[in-house]
Amino acid sequence: MIGTFSPADSALKGCPLLAGIPREDLRRDWPTARIVAFRHRGTIYRQGEPGRTVFCVLDGQVTIARVSHDGATLTTAALGAGDFFGPALSGAIAAEDTARAKGAVSIWRAPIDEFRRLLLHHPAVAWEFVSLLALRQRQMERRLESFAFKRTKARLAETFRELSGGFATRCEHGFGQHVRLTQQELADLVGASRPVVSTILNELRDQGVLGYNREYVCVRGIEDIEKLIDS
Q: Fewer beta carbons below 10 Å: N end or C end of the chain?
C-alpha cells in the first residue's frame, strides 16, 4: 500500500456506480471510506483475515486466488475497473481467498456497515449494484458452460474477451490490449494445465494474434480473439 486519498478524489471515475453518487452523500454515509494505491503484487487482503470491508477496483487489475491446505494456489478471478469484491459481500467472517494487485492498482474500500447504509439511502444505486452482481454471476455461468462444451483455445479466447472489456489498457508493446496475467493464472481461469495454455499461446504468437512473456499477454486486436471463440 503506497497512499490514501479522500473519497472525493477524481479517481472515483473508475467506477461509474461510485462516481454517480453526490460527494456530500459519500461523506455522510461513508465517512471512513478511502482510496488506496497498491504496488504490483501488493496484497489487498489475505486468506483467513477478518472480512468486514468492501472493495472496488478503480484502476488497474486485481487477481483473486485461493490456497489449499497443501499450499497449491488457484486463481479464481481477475477483476478490473468497476468490479466490487471482498469477503464482506458474501457475509463471510473471514476471507476465503487472497486479493493481490497486478501492476499498479487503485482500490476504493469501505466498511460493510457504511456500504449497507449508503445502499439503503440510494435505492437506484442498490439496484445497479445488484445488476453488477448478476452480471458477475452470469460470467461465472458462462465459464462453467465453456468448461463443459468448448475446447481450451475457445475458452482462452473468451477469457481474453472478458478481460479486455473489463480492465485492459492500451498496450505499450505495439499491440492493442494488455492483460497482466501469468500463464498459470490464465490456465487456472480456463480450467487447463499450464503446458496446454503455453502451447496455445505459442501458436497464437506465431500467427501474430498476440505477444506474451511470463508476466503478461498482449492481444493485437480483440477482433482476432472473437474469431477463435466459435472455431
A: C
Three cell numbers written together for 64: 483473486
What residue type is assigned to position 46 of the chain? Answer: R
Helix or strand (DSSP H, E) at 202: helix 194-206
CA distances from 84 to 17, 64, 78, 114, 165 (A): 10, 12, 12, 15, 16
pTM confidence score: 0.84
For the CA atoms of 156, 161, 167, 168, the dihedral, rounded to the nearest 10 degrees, stands at: 90
**Residue 167 neighbours by CB distance under 10 Å:** 26
- Kind of pairing, strands 84-85 and 73-79? unpaired
Measured CA to CA in angstroms, residue 25 lies from 35, 49, 73, 89 at distances of 16, 30, 40, 21
pLDDT on residue 172: 55
pLDDT recorded at residue 140: 86
Q: Sorting pLDDT into bands at 50, 70 and 90, what band is 66?
A: very high
| 102 close to 61: Cβ distance less than 8 angstroms | yes
What 3-state class would DSSP assign to 3? strand
Half-sphere exposure of 150 (CA within 13 A, CB side): 20
User: CB of 17 within 8 A of CB of 128?
Assistant: yes
3-class SS at 114?
helix
